[in-house]
Amino acid sequence: MDVGSGTFTERDFDEALAATRAALTGRGFDIPHAVDLTALVRDRAGGDVERVRILGACAPGFAAAAYAVNEDVALLLPGNVVVRESGGGCVIEAQNRHCCPRWSPEGCRTSRTTCPPTCAR
């Protein structure tokens, strides 16, 4: 099962990153943190990877409602959105929502059998 879905853009990295941030905040997401994976791998492991930024995106209203149903949802927050250089442009990916259980009173809180069939268990 794919853990994410995304799209390719011919924009350069900085432009794709700025557009992704603007799109997320324009839709009500906060970005409480961002990880520069390229620098982290280089500085801590001596490795070399293309430019990659991981944005932690969280919709506060949704997070509060989901947390009220099941505190375990905190394990999934914030959701990751990745911007990475690839083949003359950038790939922008987000977590596949079908990999996560439904956080509703009728959902995974009471019975794992009511999760979507694509729920990885």
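(ticket continues) Second input and output from the same batch:
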Amino acid sequence: MTLHKVPKYAGVRSFVSKIELFEAAGIEAPPTTWDELAEAVRALKAADSATVPFPHRR
């Protein structure tokens, strides 16, 4: 087996969401910036404190 290329960088390229949770939190569209994502996370937590809207490192 010959290895030709190895990716230099890896990262998140997509965002998966449950539209029902966004609607319940009053979010009209998926976030497109990091600031909008942070705002969406706050809105999701405020709408349902049992929701974990964004994974975090411990």
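Agent notes: The helical segments are 19-24, 34-47. The mean pLDDT is 79. Closing as not reproducible unless the customer responds.
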